[in-house]
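User: what does the whole thing look like in 3D?
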Amino acid sequence: MHYIVDAFVLAVKLIFTGNHEVYAITARTLEISISSTLISALLFVPLGCLIYFKNFRGKKGLISFIQTCYSLPTVFVGLLVFLAFSRAGPLGIFGIMFTPQVMVIGQVILVGPIVTGLAISALSGVSPAIRETAISLGASRFQSVWVVLKEARFAVLTAVLVGFGRAISEVGLALMVGGNIRGYTRVLTTAISLETGIGDVALSLALGFILVALALIVTVLANRFLRVKEADVAQSRAPTS
Amino acid sequence: MLKVERLHHSYGKAEILKNIDLGVEQGEVFVTIGPTGSGKTTLLRLVGLLERPTSGQIYFDGHVVNNSEKQRLEIRRRLAMVSQKPAVFNATVFDNVAYGLKIRKESGSSLRYKVINALETVGLAGYDRRDARTLSGGETQRVAIARAIVIQPELLLLDEPTANLDPVSASHIERLVDDIMKKSDMTVMMSTHDMFQGQRLAHRMGVLIGGEILQTGKPAEIFSSPRGRHIAEFVGMENIIAGIITSNEEGMVDIKIENNAIEAISNFGVGEKVYAGIRPEEITLARTKESTSARNTFAGEITRIVLFGPLARIELNCGFPLIALITKRSAEEMNLQTEDRIHASFKATGVHVIKG
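Assistant: Here's the predicted 3D structure for the full assembly of 597 residues, as structure tokens:
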């Protein structure tokens, strides 16, 4: 109990007194996890659409495989990325081992299946009648898919948020391919694991609180954004008379 | 405007539509009518280019619809369809109605004007900001109709627009559809299982039963001279009695039934098997055998009396079953009871002779 109170006080202090290092770690954490989430959303929401709307052999198997990948161990992905990007690896020529870039790549691999799979579930929650209605009103194939995606917007956003949650909270991959280099690839999770290792539990807890607070803020903002957009739409249609 | 030739459609092994041929003229209201499951919706979906037929051709405005997605989209943009249970987008009523216009690249004040206008037409003025998903069934149907007519389609397809509504909403929607049809020069193809609705709205009807168009013609024609027993039953010809023509004198025929005979007007020759169809409302009842100009009078026993609204449905056994529809007032004044003996008469011209 004592620890937690101390840690909380320290966290508040660290945040409001402008501790440079904490800020830098937090900023780097957000930078990496938001990048990997956005890249995943841009790549894998469309992939989810493609898989959902196309009929092909092995579709069910593919979806099961994607769902299995939700729980890919972060250290395993870390290992694969490490092998691929280390000097001797096939992608070693890029020379990006132990950089934020390779951490983003690794996180995209971690988050991709979640975004793809949950996007597919999101789309299947929309009645097929919606797409037919759009088509019967003259929508092209692309426009009709867009309508369904818009109908599923909350669930799709949830998919992206869950992906973000995985990206910001994972530690195995960040440690293995990022290397926890101070001021460069150190993120909240790797810092926590390091500080705990060297016995500074209070600092660890403080960083932990920041991590949770970040996740909360991003979720609230994302929800707010969607709702504001809806209100906007309603407003702009208000009678002008 | 629209022509359908030798259209077949199957889902797996189930043959839904068989050899459909029909044409809809410019400005015409064509109603396909048939019982539930007869293929009406499938036919509309094929015409609406939502599905591709197993075989057969659809011509739109003289051009055959081919398989190119581009051409199908172009044609689809010239028509609009309202489905039986319309889905609304999770958006405002305005945005729902505006959808078809937006994908046709309309915007600004002309879009606004058209949407508001369409909402007024369907009686939803002032609903534009409402969340479309909170509307009642009747209101949803109105939004769906507004959404379709706002794009001023050359061909409007309506799939049982009143099938899932309560009677009051249904009659409102029917009146609305009737108004829209009268005020615009839209060509309309509609389906319904309600014979009376078809008769009220259609310029021409096609009877679709079991995936086949059995008869097309003006509503009055189909109603008065149904071609075949299925159609007769469907159009409310409740008394259908099998018999054989025993004489034909210049169109005046005797039809032998059980141990009786019915006189009727018909062109069928002697020896042909026919059905005599008599509408219940064309039968009059009397306590005594009166002298009357009606050629057919049968004595029978009342087996059942069913009252509904201002009407009474009297089921008789005259050696063959016969159903009469009279007013409740008549039934009361005559003090009709079950097991009463009574005389039922109908005119020879009131008998519709159908091929057996």
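In plain terms: DSSP finds ten helices and 20 strands in chain B. Residues 2-233 of chain B form a domain with the Rossmann fold fold (CATH 3.40.50.300).
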